[in-house]
Amino acid sequence: MPENKAENLHASVLLGETLELLSVRDGGVYVDATLGLGGHAEAILSSAENARLIGIDQDAQAIGFAEKRLTGFGNRARIFHANFADIKTVLREAEIEKADGVLADLGVSSLQFDTGERGFSFRFDAPLDMRMDPESGAETAAELLENLSEEQIADLIYQYGEERASRRIARRIVWKREIGEPITTTKELAETVEKAIGRAGGAKNRDKIHPATRTFQALRIAVNGELEILENFIRDAVDVLKPDGRLAIITFHSLEDRIVKQTFQKLAGKCFCPPRIPKCVCGAEKRIEILTRKPVVADETEISENPRSRSAKLRVCRKLD
Q1: CB-based burial of residue 240 (10 Å sphere; 0-12 exposed, 13-18 middle, 19+ buried)?
Q2: Domain 3-107+227-319 fold
Q3: For residue 317, what pLDDT band results from cuts at 50, 70 and 90?
Q4: Is the pLDDT of residue 321 over 90?
Q5: What kind of fold does domain 118-224 have according to CATH?
Q6: CA dist 78 to 23, 52, 90, 263, Å?
Q7: Would you state the pLDDT for residue 5?
Q8: Do the beta carbons of residue 282 and residue 272 sit within 8 Å?
Q9: pTM (2 decimals)?
Q10: Burial 170-189 (b: 16+ CB within 10 A, else e)
């Protein structure tokens, strides 16, 4: 993808609100745990003199663009090819003990979503891949659909996509596999889902959400293990913060936001154990102050300029002394 196209399709969500709540200061050390194309990182480095930034991303293609974008900041920016779950390992390698702020902008980057061959979107006919790190050796979405049982596929689509018609979709996916036509491309999956559940409203509803949207979301989450590592990442991020340091997380769907909200609440001391249990076992401990009682969302101006910001939610906490 040409560099100018990558820049055009990238718009950092809730940028001003994130910088304000992170309380970026001169000379601070910040971690962008999901670097992407470097929009948030560039803003952090530009807003604070002598601030340093550690960028982490598992997508080598995105790192290439981010490196070019941040080259003017010299050694103030260091970039590591890793998963955000490895934040402690990365900081040890960077010889940084504690950070003043950590940011994670979750979900699919614009580069991944709009690069057809990556297989994230049904807008392009491409191999059904969906790995955020194609070099990882992990199973692709096509391989998952080939290897999982009908029940496992249905559970995956229901759990991660919140798709009520998951069993009908799984049944048709497995039927295609049994007749010797396994699903290997984004177009085949989108068409299979549409045939399984139809499109509400028929032709009149062509501009509404595509019936395969939730299935694609579910497969992406499963392929990349996005939800399994999120709570541990939040706890590790709080660990690496200095006292009064800030953690900001931007989510794009309800499953992510629920995990962030509940993990923040646990770290703020709220116990989720049943009342009859004599001792807390849920991991609640008062280590942070939640700065966003309700998530920060995009205003109408940002939504009109960047429709993807419509579903974004920003939550921020501060580490206690």
Answers
A1: buried
A2: Rossmann fold (3.40.50)
A3: very high
A4: no
A5: DNA polymerase; domain 1 (1.10.150)
A6: 21, 8, 10, 29
A7: 43
A8: yes
A9: 0.88
A10: bebbbebbeeeebbbbbebb
